[in-house]
Amino acid sequence: MGEKVVNDALSGTVGDYVASQKKLLKTIDKKLTKRLAGRILLQVQDNGQAWYVEPTSQVRYYLADGARAYGALRKFGLGITNADLKKIPVGIEQRFLDTDTDSDGLADKLEEGLGTDINKTDTDSDGVSDYDEVVKNNTNPLGTGKLTYSSSLINRLKGRIVLQVQSKGEAWYINPVDGKRYYLKDGGAAYQIMRFLSLGITNADIQKVGIGDL
Fold it and tell me: Are residues 19 and 58 in the same domain?
């Protein structure tokens, strides 16, 4: 996946780096923090360090690399039923690097999360590809029926990590920008979400957002 550690304290530990950043904190800007809640931030004036602003606590948590990000983000997971999860549209980011065995436009990792067949372009054999059902038509790729989305549920969960409690605990990130869910299969997926769904932020601004400990 080309993942690399973005820890600025290369000779120290993640804890050392977080401690050093706490010393740089300025007066907390509550308006700024609220606006950034649920976002993954990248320090564009530094070495691209990533932080997740957890919506409930309104503080940021350091995501040193994909593996640590995956573990950290799951800690903030909110349980969700399969029925409610289906009310949130699936997000597709073409820049994500992943295998697509059946070449249907849906990456294997995403298909695992959706429960569709990575070896069949049309899992339910209804004549419509899994990609078209999920992305274009908003129909069920595993059977019949239209998918109905809930704006109120989406707005309530924007920026949150949800875990499928009725399945195998699969994790999804609800992107606050587009209100869609992105599958957090593993550290590689977490790294790509950090890379492509993040928001650049200056050092001056990020120092106005509090820091939490994992």
Answer: yes
Domains held by the chain: number: 2
Q: Where are the alpha helices (DSSP H) in 23-89?
A: 30-36, 66-75, 82-85
In a domain, 118, yes or no: yes
Please indicate, yes or no, whether residues 88 and 171 belong to a single structural domain of this protein: yes
**Residue 168: count of CB within 10 angstroms of its CB:** 9
Which residues of the chain are under the pLDDT cut of 50? Answer: 1-11
Residue with tokens 């957890």: 54
Give the H or E element holding residue 161. strand 161-164
Is the CB of residue 45 less than 8 Å from the CB of residue 203? yes
Mean pLDDT (the chain, rounded):
88
Domain for residue 153, yes or no?
A: yes
Distance between CA 214 and CA 114 in Å, rounded?
A: 29
**pLDDT score of 72:** 84
pTM: 0.85
> Residue 187, CB half-sphere, CA atoms under 13 Å: how many?
12
- Domain span at residue 27 reads 14-76+198-206
Residue 33 CB-density burial (10 A; 0-12 exposed, 13-18 middle, 19+ buried): middle
